[in-house]
Amino acid sequence: MTAVLPTVEASTLVVNVQIALPRDTPAAERAFALADRLHALAVDDADADRVSTTVLVLADETGSRPELPPSPVPDLMLLADRRVALLDGVLLHLTRLEYDLLLYLTDNIGRVLTRGQLLRQVWGYTVASGGRTVDVHIRRLRAKLGGRGPIITTVRGVGYRMDRGRRVAVVRDPVLTS
Q1: How far apart are CA 144 and CA 157, in angstroms?
Q2: Any idea which GO molecular function terms this record carries (predicted)?
Q3: Which end of the chain, N or C, is more open, meaning fewer C-beta atoms within 10 Å of its C-beta?
Q4: pLDDT single digits (tens) 75-111
């Protein structure tokens, strides 16, 4: 089955996501709910009248699975320019500092960051004092992530590192950042 996409202007951004799921399952319902949330994020803009979203359902009536390349879907998605965090497609409620800390950790996945580095970069402290503040915020982030998505690992005597980078996506809007 072939999908025909409409012709678009050169200044139009088209985002195409393909997810192959069995019909009438909780996973399919979550995919539709995610599409609705993405649409809501897209039209939460002054240009809402110029935004169009479409969910296209391709069904193979023979019951055979379509040949699609595997596409890992991140558990945690950060929409950096909108300051939104989605965990398994559901809005994650974070304080300003929790969000900033999570974004900084994801921007530095795999790197060990000291409490001093985190205090300077996230909190803006010039003197690296108050390491317990970092510990408290890390504990709160871990609780909110609930073991899903990336793992924030403690490196004893040094600081913290975020692991499982393939389970995280940071999306930055090139139109807003240029």
Answers
A1: 24
A2: phosphorelay response regulator activity; transcription cis-regulatory region binding
A3: C
A4: 888 988 889 999 988 899 999 999 999 999 999 999 9
Q: One-letter amino acid identity for 136? A: V
Task: Say what the pLDDT of residue 62 is.
Answer: 53
* Cα distance between residue 165 and residue 76, in whole Å: 10
* Residue located via tokens 């319902």: 29
pLDDT band at 125 (very low <50, low <70, confident <90, very high): confident
Type of residue at 24 = D
Domain map of the chain by residue range?
1-71, 76-177
Fold for domain 76-177?
Answer: Arc Repressor Mutant, subunit A (1.10.10)
User: E strand or H helix at 100, and its extent?
Assistant: helix 96-107
Angle at which helix 131-145 crosses helix 96-107, to 10 degrees, equals: 90
The DSSP line for 128-169 is ---HHHHHHHHHHHHHHHTT-SSEEEEETTTEEEEE-GGGEE
Using CA atoms, how far residue 127 sits from 20, 96, 116, 121, 130, in Å, is: 51, 21, 8, 11, 9
- pTM of this structure: 0.59
User: Which run of H or E residues covers position 154?
Assistant: strand 151-155
Question: Distance between CA atoms of 7 and 27, rounded to whole angstroms?
Answer: 31
Strand partners, 114: 159
